[in-house]
Amino acid sequence: MDRTIAISDTVNAGIHALVLAEKNGGNIAARQAAERLGVSPTYLAKILQKLSGQGLLVPRCGLGGGYALARSAEAISCLDVLTALEGELPIRECLFARSVCRTKTCALRTFCEETEVRLRRVLAATTIAAVARSF
Hints:
The protein is mainly alpha-helical. It has helices at about 10-25, 30-35, 40-55, 80-85, 105-125, 130-135, and strands spanning about 25-30, 55-60, 65-70. The protein has a three-stranded antiparallel beta sheet.
């Protein structure tokens, strides 16, 4: 396993794309951002389109095109990005993708539940602006 927290590559790219937009005066062009993030421009364009469809970005017309943040980076949380791209975080009851315990009293179930609560809290409290300040 190469991750401590299971944040998908899509969400990771989406968060960092919005951070790049914030660092660039609120605007982002998919091709340049993809190059900076080391991802395919087509892949990032799909992410940006989805973020636009979910109201986190607005498309910019004209020379250069691209997208602009739909609201301030202080008003967009990492949880907003995750939810926009993947829907609600699933409630994990087990470290396995499918629960293997026969009872609801497994110590690891409690660990999973507590970790989910903490993860949601941190993602909700961490704004794109905060990430941009440390990027």
